[in-house]
Amino acid sequence: MAVTALGIAPDDTGAGVTPLTHRQILKAHWENTGVITGLTISGRSDLTYSVAAGVAVCSRGAADGYTEAYWPGGNTPAVAAGGANPRIDVIWIRANDPTQGDADNHVTIGVTQGAASATPVKPSAPAGCTEIGSRLLPANASNTNGSTANDSVAYAIPHGAGLGLLGQNVNTADLHGDSTVRKWYYENAVQFTVPTDRVVELVHECTFAVGEGNGTTRDGWISWAVAAFQIDGVDIPHSGAEFQASNGVWEDHSISCITTVKAGTHVARVRNGLANSSKAGLHPYFRYSENNGISYKGRTLRVWDRGVAR
Where do the domains of the chain lie? Predict the structure, then answer.
């Protein structure tokens, strides 16, 4: 099947870029559907929601590519008044397509009402529609003025842009660790998926003191080691470090590593353990719970996207 590149004029027969080809090209620019800019939702003195001007990435399905839909601003269709319990309404945008059975080729805004409940659940936007926001409508509401944003906005992310936090593992246990020197444990596993080859940063933080028996001690010191970060069970070379604790103080330590991964799903983790101690029986005592007004970090591993690998 012959296709024409975007930006190339049609041939003498009028054959050129088809709408589907154009949508597939647009899809290559975005990681997901969502809001690009604007489309801020607010309540009104009636039962409609106001949607400000803005642009969103829309799709009728993966095989159909993406569209970029501009909304000039306006109100949604009216919703039902509030019942005895609150509910969540989802506001969405849709790019109509007559070739797929729609009555016109207009950009439309709509609302899907959730079920009223003491613990309301957010409904899904209809197939082919892109959610631009959701609102919590109070019980017995006669207008949408009292509605509040129920969730954060789902933004469209440009292909190749930083994806932010890819995943994290937060160990919330207050835990006495092993006193065996150089016995390694594989912990804080984080599974994450990237769409292309990426640069990622692994950040590990831990809070611990010198433990002895069931408590802490000021008598002696320990050295706790992150021997290495691992990706898919393989050490990242030269990514380890040792941290010392002494005098019964809860000490916070952090180590990070930047590496590259191939497109796909991976598992990051740390290989850690007691590196040394001043006497037998001493061990790390990890802390997460608050103590004397201080809120500790426990042991965490976070995986951050730092962009496309070049």
Answer: 19-149, 165-308
Gyration radius of the chain over CA positions? 27
**Which whole number is the average pLDDT over 13-27?**
94
Q: The whole model's pTM is what?
A: 0.72
| Per-residue tokens: 247 | 């005098």
Quickly name the fold that domain 19-149 has. Immunoglobulin-like (2.60.40)
Which band of pLDDT confidence, cut at 50, 70 and 90, is reported for residue 267? very high
Q: Which CATH number fits domain 165-308: 2.60.120.40, 3.30.1300.10, 3.10.180.10, 3.10.28.10?
A: 2.60.120.40
pLDDT in tens, 25-61: 999 999 999 999 999 999 999 999 999 999 999 999 9
